[in-house]
Amino acid sequence: MYERMARSVSQLFQYKRDSHSYRRNEAPALRTLLEWGRAKMTQSALVVMMIVLHRVCASHNQRTSLQDVCTASELPRVVTCNAPTRYECGIQIGTGARDMIQASLHTKEMKSLQKWITTTDGEDTFKKLVSLNGKRFPEVIQEIRGISVGANVSFDAMLMGNLASELACLSGVNTTSAIRKSCTDYHFLRSVQTTRHSMEGSSSTHIYAESIWGHNEDELPADNKTTFLIEANITGYPNLAYTAFAYAPAVPGWAWGFNHHGHGQTVNALFPKTCVVGLGVNFVARDALEASTIDDAIARIMLKGEQHALGQAFNLGNTNSIERGHVLIETSPNGTRQTVVACADATETKIVSSPVSHHSQHLWGVTQDVVAWHTNMYKILPREYGLRDTSSEHRDAALRSAPNATDKNGVLSRLSDRSDAAWPVFRSGRPPDCCATLNTVLFDVRQRKVDMWVVAASAGGVDAQCLPNATAPARSWAWAVNREGSRNS
Q1: Rounded to whole angstroms, how far apart are CA atoms 147 and 257?
Q2: Cβ contact 239:485 at 8 Å
Q3: pLDDT tens track for 433-452
Q4: CA 215, CA 312: separation in Å to the nearest integer?
Q5: What is the DSSP letter of 160?
């Protein structure tokens, strides 16, 4: 019996018998345990121990096999920089992502833009865009110049890549085709109304117990080959440490990111019917990533007195301004507008998780939940500002018909929704839908934590067991606030 059970247990570990960790750790430990049991235990006790081991190992095998399936896709490459200036940081980013940047500038779309900007109209438009954005965002220009040096590509090519959406629209290419990035965000906030009674009287206030939003980053599956994470630490004035997801050859910001000031942002592309020579989406988003407060971020995005070339929607939060809730801003060539996702009268940040009493004081809470979501169509500005996007309409309808999230798992469940087989919220790139969800990121403002999920999609779709609401995150960061500029970790 001992030999049969031992063989059975060993076979359960067979799937990784050649691995380094099994040879060094699990196999010797298992043999030692079995030998000890044979020498020290009665036969009946040994049988019980073997049955328990058998079940534990079977469960371990099942969990590990599922984890192997769910993490089949590679995590994004991490490119780091530690430098005193944005130019020098750009050199390090360009060096670390050189192959992806070079590949991204040799696509069919980029070659078409390169040809167009050599025409009289194209050259004039390109120069105006570069001049306008360079005057408004000189630090972004320096970062792009540094990236071009590190990636060994021309400065003009990098500028063209960062203005590709605007150039594609202004050259006559359909905006929806030119801007394929199309994402989903879902917000959940819970406030607690607290009343304090004391000898001096009563007082009431609202505080945030939960402040969470999640974001699905959607793009063409092929574009995942030229995406990467940036972990930057710029030590010179003004100092900045940030983590962000980026699409080569663009600067970070126009996807999702967070910085050491406690600022976090995610972006949904919008498809306005018109475009103008104005400030570009990549430039505005990269500048917003520098924000130190909610108000600073709003000012950088609203661009008082200046015009956006295209449109995008920002989802914002800040760990130092929990009482402000989350801010949504939509931009367009026709203007910008913001709204606040917040519970009524939430003003303080002290958390109350349960009733407490102490001497002459008594404190209790009444909760209020608020949810909101955003896809790739205008909801704050007039709907007619934008082109129709079928996927956005279906994703919006699915989120509207689903039960409201009531916690973090509920947010992940909404972002994992695949009830609409043709146009799901969590996307796999199967026709008629062109895009796939490259990653899902969850911002927990109160806990100062950011989690990321990367789920493998195949021709058969996405395994439901691997969706963000069913698995652990692939990467997590402490959304630390360090005013000395140390990197988020």
Answers
A1: 19
A2: yes
A3: 989 999 999 999 999 999 99
A4: 15
A5: H
